[in-house]
Amino acid sequence: MTNSLRPHGYQRTPLPEETAPTPPTPRAEEPGQQATAPPAPTSPAGQKPKQRDAFFDNAKYLAIVLVAMGHSWEPLTDSSRTAEALYMIVYTFHMPAFILISGYFSRSFDMRPDRLKRLITGVAVPYLVFEVAYTLFKRWADDDPTYDFSLLDPWYLTWFLIALFVWRMSTPLWKLVRWPIPLSLAVATLAAVSPDIGDDLDMQRLLQFLPFFVLGLCMKPEHFQMIRRRSVRIASVPIFACAFVFAYWAAPRMSSAWFYHRDSVQELGAPPWTGPVMTLALFGCSVVLVSCFFAWVPRRHMWFTVLGAGTLYGYLLHGFLAKGSRFWGWFDEYQWLHKPLGEITVTIIAASVITVLCTPPVQRAFRFAMEPKMAWAFRKDPAEQARSRTTTSA
């Protein structure tokens, strides 16, 4: 079966017999944070802070829509080869695009106290809140009151937050080494052939997706300018067409679990030598499709640009509906959803729901959980106080 390794609850597949003034660090690194450019050196007093970059807000919004669409297509893939092909294509690049942007906006991260505070309040706290919330939701919606809490075993969407926390903390290391991308690919390859790596912190997925974060760390603004050239946009059309043709051919022959990067090759029933091959092949395919995706992202301000600041909200909140639809058997009860009209309807609903969940009213309602200030939890940093006094006096 092509879809025998689906992420319902993200249980791991068992082994066959025999996971500013200097401005503060910008928060575009996670799906719901600001898309301002990385901090520049201290600017003269009175100078306006750098404006948000519409391109990155647009990219994050469009990518989060694809995330929601992919989750809505997953129950349809067993009955639709077209849905399976689209699913495989989207899973090739939607999370790599997010992770690459995360790395790009983490380039200036260091262990400065204000940046560590933001890492805690913007990543660690939402992880804890939603890990608990998802567990309670599963207990209720899936009628599983004994389902255990586990802060070390991320459930469903929360893996991205704990992975981002670890990636960000490792940023100084990747900025220090001479060949960061090859080294990260070596780490990902070793993870792919290590079935006993364990479930703690979803380490398989954390390590296998690591090269995309490191690639983002290594990118510069001119690289995005190159990607957005007209020639790249034109070339991306036949590339996506070829990707669909290949995915349509591969759908009945290849498990889409390869694209989750959640299991070792042994857990996928493949020989160890496929680890390096698939790691490099999938990384290459993802980079190409991410580039094609970025090439078509609008540079100017669009009606949805403002929603790019709320993608973390949409990402985490839509998980309740995505999982609830499985727990409550909607796709089994309403068989018309597996027909072409039903598939289109599901796609439109997913895009609409995620759009609403990214809006400013939703951000305001859930900011206490996603971006808490938590001033009470931290000591005041003397250097930060000095900067505040300098700004006030100026």
TrEMBL record:
Transmembrane portions of the chain: 85-106, 118-137, 149-167, 231-251, 277-296, 303-321, 341-362
Zinc as UniProt keyword: no
Cited InterPro entries: Acyl_transf_3_dom, Nod_factor_acetyltransferase
The entry's keywords: Membrane, Transmembrane, Transmembrane helix
Organism superkingdom: Bacteria
Domain (Acyltransferase) ranges: 54-358
Keyword Transmembrane among record annotations: yes
GO function term, MF aspect, one: acyltransferase activity, transferring groups other than amino-acyl groups
Region (Disordered): 1-50
Protein name, as recorded: Acyltransferase 3 domain-containing protein
